[in-house]
Amino acid sequence: MNCVLRVNNVSRKVKDFQILKQVSFELGRGEIVGLIGPNGAGKTSIMKVLVGLTRKYTGEVDLRGVRDIGSMIETPNFYPYNTGYQNLMYFAKLNGVGEKRVVELLELLGLIDSANKNVKAYSLGMRQRLGIAQALLKDPDVLVLDEPTNGLDPEGIYEVREYIRKIANEKNITVLISSHLLGELEKLCDRAILIKKGEIIQFMDLHNDRKKKQITFVIESLDTEATQEILKENGYHVASQNEQEVRIKIGANEKNDVAKLLASHNVVMTGLYEACETLEDTFLELIKD
Question: What SS3 class is residue 201?
Fold first, then answer.
């Protein structure tokens, strides 16, 4: 991974409340990374540290590989009775950016046909895309997006997701994105960082996980304890077990081997099927107290 940004042991405390605790991670050039956690986990706090909105923290944020960071943290605000073009030009002038860049971004985010409409008439999805365009004005190589699909309908979510993917692919921009819509992050991101109570609890390589396609199978049997022991003795990874079922992670072509193994030990199975395990399943399991 060509590292563009590095966070080393960042902690933040307000009075007696530990907001961040020794947070460390790296972002590679051109990758899309999801920041996932429950409300109050510290996602927005991490993003504010990265973009310089929070200065009171310990640890280090290494930005030596970064030319500029663009961000959209929380809902973007625009002048409702000005057009999308006028709003973007206003922020462009504040940042010393010319009209050419504004037109380029309106085209990139699919807003060129609506550029001369008042923002008041924009859908929420269009305003979110205008916010992303604003974050891209200074041609950053890192883009930080906090809940960019918040409040959008399915069509708006799809549009924003596809434009974020387009930006990362065409401009080779690194994107750090948070969202409560874990299914969307799973479709969009290369990696995920799971955070709980201000502390990173797991990194997930979603890109490689999709390639490996290791599947969780559910085995229902009359004796799940015996089933679990047989599987473990034969080198299978048992993910979980209770009175009703045993779950194992195997390749799709190993299903018949497992069935034959259990049958040879006279295990009576009442069910053997694939579980649809998602990023949301992993997240919910990890945040359990």
Answer: strand
| Structure token pair of residue 179 | 């969202």
Distance of alpha carbon 236 from alpha carbon 131, whole angstroms: 49
Of 205, 230, 259, which residue constitutes the final position of a domain?
205
Domain count along the chain: 2
**Among 179, 173, 189, CA closest to 157:** 179
| pLDDT band (50, 70, 90) for residue 265 | very high
DSSP 142-171: EEEEESTTTT--HHHHHHHHHHHHHHHHHH
Which pLDDT score, from 0 to 100, does residue 230 have? 94
Tokens standing for residue 249? 């992670």
pLDDT in the model for residue 288: 67
Which of 206, 195, 229, 179 shows the shortest CA–CA distance to 279? 206
- What is the torsion angle, in degrees rounded to the nearest 10, for the CA atoms of residue 145, residue 149, residue 150 and residue 153? 170
Q: Name the helix (H) or strand (E) containing 49.
A: helix 43-51
Q: How far apart are CA 183 and CA 179, in angstroms?
A: 10
Checking if the pLDDT of 114 tops 60, the result is yes
More confident residue, 206 or 100: 100
In a shared domain, residues 127 and 242: no
**pLDDT tens for each residue of 167-216:** 999 889 999 999 877 888 888 999 999 999 999 998 988 876 554 556 78
At which residue do the structure tokens 């992050």 appear? 185
Q: Under a CB-based contact definition with an 8 Å cutoff, are residues 34 and 185 in contact? A: yes
Q: Check whether residue 197 and residue 220 sit in a common domain.
A: no
Q: What is the largest CA-CA distance in the chain?
A: 76
- Indicate whether 174 and 247 sit together in one domain: no
**What pTM was estimated for this model as a whole?**
0.77
Q: How far apart are CA 178 and CA 34, in angstroms?
A: 6
**Which range of residues forms the domain containing residue 277?**
214-288
